[in-house]
Amino acid sequence: MVTGGAGFIGSHLVDRLMAEGYTVLVLDNLSNGNIKNIQSHLRDPSFSFIRADLKEKRKLEKKLDGVDCVFHFAANPEVRVGEVDPFVHFNENLVATFNLLEAMRKSETARIIVFASTSTVYGEASKLPTPEDYAPMIPISTYGASKLGCEALISSYAYTFGLRGLILRLANIVGSRATHGVILDFIEKLRRGTGKLDILGDGSQKKSYLHVEDCVDAILCVTKAFLGGGKRVDVYNVGSIDQIAIARIAEIVVREMGILNVKLSFTGGVDGGRGWLGDVKFMHLSVGKLMKTGWRPKYPSEEALTLATREILRTAVL
Predict the structure, then answer these.
(1) Average pLDDT value over all residues in the chain
(2) The pLDDT value given to residue 87
(3) Which helix (H) or strand (E) holds 16?
(4) pLDDT tier at 318 (50, 70, 90 boundaries)?
(5) What CATH number corresponds to the domain at position 248?
(6) Are residues 150 and 188 part of one domain?
(7) CB-based burial, 260-290: b 16+ in 10 Å, e otherwise
(8) What is the DSSP string of 189-203?
(9) pLDDT digits over 61-91, tens only?
(10) Are residue 197 and residue 216 in the same domain, yes or no?
(11) Same domain for 138 and 254?
């Protein structure tokens, strides 16, 4: 099962699982996902789709009949919404994950969960690149806090109820089918034709970006390694091997759109130059543990962003 399987990363994962011959069930309420992302699989006998909401606990349990591994990618992906309505992240992340784990606890077959967590669980890490054993983890956004809470729930259910949990802390993932993020934000602003691009923050932000193709490769590589091992719970960072500054991302998007004489204007930001309250200014995950599984990224951050911008420009309706 892939929860959130009609969404950005989830649908790309579904494509790969189907290509490798697995029987796949997608569960998605389509609040962020799009049925078009999985349209090509709807008539495949090895594929099934259920429109359902993880927050509806009673309807969930029977959906797991025959499922052995759950890729849990359903979530509200917009970090900034927590500044306005923190209940969204509590409900869409913690409540939904609790309900899923309860259904797995009662299931006879679904004993393995692969969870899409986030780099924001680390908060403002003092060590870059940040390894999986970094501590203390002090999230600065409700999104990061809710994801860290989900990690704790998964660990507790694994040790208490005999499940196994693989936690993947994702960097910024970019590519086709994305519905939010810096590339879409810049494209939307540039299409207004004002000749100026307003960039949130003071311009010093520097983070890692990974193309969704590399992300899915990593997910499958580390999942297969986890399934072949004996750990009850394991954690891996999933990100690129480098960082890129926000101003350079703006230059890439401007270049790919073919717009001349654009003035980059930084808003100054909030809380020490962050783009928004809860924004982590500097993020670079250590991926040494992941690379020991044999995974290698095809694209560094700049190439990933360039490729993703081209993909989004070909398909996005803004």
Answers:
(1) 94
(2) 81
(3) helix 8-19
(4) very low
(5) 3.90.25.10
(6) no
(7) eebeeebeebbeebbbbebbbbebbbbbeeb
(8) HHTT--SEEEESSSS
(9) 889 989 999 999 998 876 666 567 788 889 9
(10) no
(11) no
Both tokens assigned to 205 = 């932000």
The sign of the torsion formed by the CA atoms of 193, 194, 195, 199 equals: negative
Instruction: With 0.85 as the threshold, say if the pTM is over it.
Output: yes
The yes-or-no verdict on residue 183 having pLDDT over 90 is yes
Which positions are annotated as active-site residues?
143
Q: Are residues 118 and 41 in the same domain?
A: yes
Q: Write out the residue range of the structural domain in which residue 265 sits.
A: 179-207+242-282+299-315
- In the chain, the amino acid numbered 234 is D
Provide CB contacts within 8 A for 94, sequence distance 6+: 146, 149, 150, 153
CATH value at residue 60: 3.40.50.720
Query: What is the per-residue pLDDT across 244-263, written as a single tens digit (0 to 9) for each?
Result: 999 999 999 999 999 999 99
**What integer is the mean pLDDT of 34-62?**
93
Residue 246 in tokens = 């926000």
Same domain, 93 and 219: yes
Number of domains in the chain: 2
Question: Residues 115, 184: one domain?
Answer: no
Count Cβ atoms below 10 Å from residue 160 Cβ, excluding itself: 9
**Six token digits for residue 233:** 């719970």
Specify whether 254 is located in the same domain as 216: no
